[in-house]
Write a structure and sequence with these properties.
It is a single chain. By secondary structure, the chain is an alpha/beta fold. It has 12 helices and 13 strands. The longest helix is centred in the last third of the chain and has 23 residues. It binds pyridoxal-5'-phosphate (PLP). The site of pyridoxal-5'-phosphate (PLP) has 12 residues, from helix 4 and helix 5.
């Protein structure tokens, strides 16, 4: 395939116009949107409006004029555009790590007496550490492995939907069914799915989910994560951080904690308004593009990475370490090579921003709102040049 063929794919891309709505450095080939999404111009404008007009002029009155509703309204928007979740089941709260802790802890309380938590040893580090910490505090143990390790002693099954290294998509419906047969609850980390790979939380029977907003949702560094709690579970689950803003009627300032109804009861402290404004803009962009079209483009981009890797990189010892079946692959491709770390540094030095994951993987992240087919072509071309020089 020639560069002109990649350019032609961009011309035919129905989402091609979205890239112009982001702040773009034309010198850069950016394939790390799965780590930090690019900055939407709408987020810049919204930040300036929220800071200037709302914070600057309305000050504390702005809490009553809409700020306080943001966690719930933006949660509903994300649920609608990306999660297959009907309203009233998602809220934007704290960091992914803290949201994950809160929901995992609530699930363990609801299944008290059971002694194991099932997760995968390849799961994202923060998820593993949080689960290990919870297990230690409660005298439980972590059972590492695939869903075959779920049994009657399992309280909680917690997997990532899209694996952060390989990009492999877990069989959500099957895992939910197996966990429920054993009487366990499920908690999904959707950080590498939301905004790129559609999920159907309601239809697939998921109990709980969390996900990051600064990757494919482009909400900016450290933007707060969302939590999903299936409606039927909400009454049975109590999150562990009893802050005033998760309480019923918080401004009554009464003694004693009583959780607020619905998803508000999963909040803890004051919402990060500036960051939430950016989450809202990212979710709006995903909604406008349409998760179906984003998924189709993510598949097409990753298919191109794999085709070019086979054509031009395989002879240099680069191996595709992601599933070749697009049905079980998210929007990034892992390319393995023994010198992956050095190669990754060399690519970044040449303006191709990718990332390295231990022990031997370079990730090509294909953010469907912003990545062009020609970016993939150029990145592979620079990689060939680099391999030629290092031998
Ligand atoms: C990016 C990511 C996180 C991020 O957690 P933070 O609390 O925002 O640092 C968590 N889990 C997964 C699977 C991720 O990919």
């Amino acid at each position: 395939m020639r560069r002109a063929d990649a350019v032609a794919l961009d011309v035919r891309d129905p989402l091609v116009g979205f890239r112009a709505r982001f702040v773009v450095d034309p010198q850069l080939v950016y394939l790390d949107g799965n780590s930090l999404g690019m900055l939407p111009m709408a987020a810049l404008a919204r930040l300036s409006a929220v800071a200037g007009r709302e914070w600057g002029e309305r000050l504390v009155r702005a809490w009553e004029e809409g700020w306080m509703q943001l966690p719930v309204s933006i949660g509903d928007r994300i649920g609608q555009v990306a999660l297959g979740a009907a309203p009233g089941q998602a809220v934007v709260g704290d960091s992914t790590t803290v949201c994950f802790y809160k929901l995992a802890s609530a699930a363990l309380d609801a299944r008290a007496g059971r002694r194991t938590i099932v997760t995968d040893s390849e799961n994202f580090p923060t998820d593993r550490y949080v689960l290990e910490g919870l297990a230690r505090a409660r005298g439980m143990s972590v059972a590492w492995g695939d869903p075959s390790v779920i049994d009657e002693d399992t309280a909680l099954v917690a997997y990532s939907h899209v694996d952060y290294r390989s990009g492999r998509i877990a069989p959500m419906t099957l895992v939910n069914a197996r966990a429920h047969e054993a009487g366990a609850l499920t908690l999904w980390d959707l950080s590498h799915s939301v905004g790129a790979v559609p999920v159907a939380l309601d239809a697939d029977g998921a109990d709980l989910a969390v996900g990051c907003t600064y990757k494919y949702l482009c909400a900016g560094p450290g933007a707060p994560a969302f939590m999903y709690v299936r409606r039927e579970r909400q009454g049975e689950l109590s999150q562990p951080i009893w802050g005033w803003l998760g309480r019923r009627d918080p401004f009554a300032m009464e003694p004693g904690y009583v959780a607020a109804e619905g998803m508000a009861g999963f909040l803890s402290g004051t919402p990060p308004v500036l960051a939430l404004a950016c989450v809202d803009e990212g979710a709006r962009l995903v909604g406008e593009a349409g998760i179906g079209r984003l998924r189709a483009k993510g598949i097409a981009l990753t298919e191109l990475v794999i085709a070019l890797a086979d054509e031009r990189l395989a002879s240099w010892g680069v191996r595709v370490a992601s599933p070749r079946d697009s049905a079980v692959r998210g929007a990034h491709v892992a390319l393995a090579h023994p010198q992956a770390r050095g190669l990754c540094d060399a690519l970044i030095a040449r303006g191709v921003i990718v990332d390295f994951r231990r022990p031997d993987v370079i990730r090509f992240g294909c953010s469907p709102l912003t990545t062009r087919f020609v970016d993939v072509w150029d990145a592979v071309d620079v990689m060939v040049e680099t391999l030629r020089e290092v031998g």
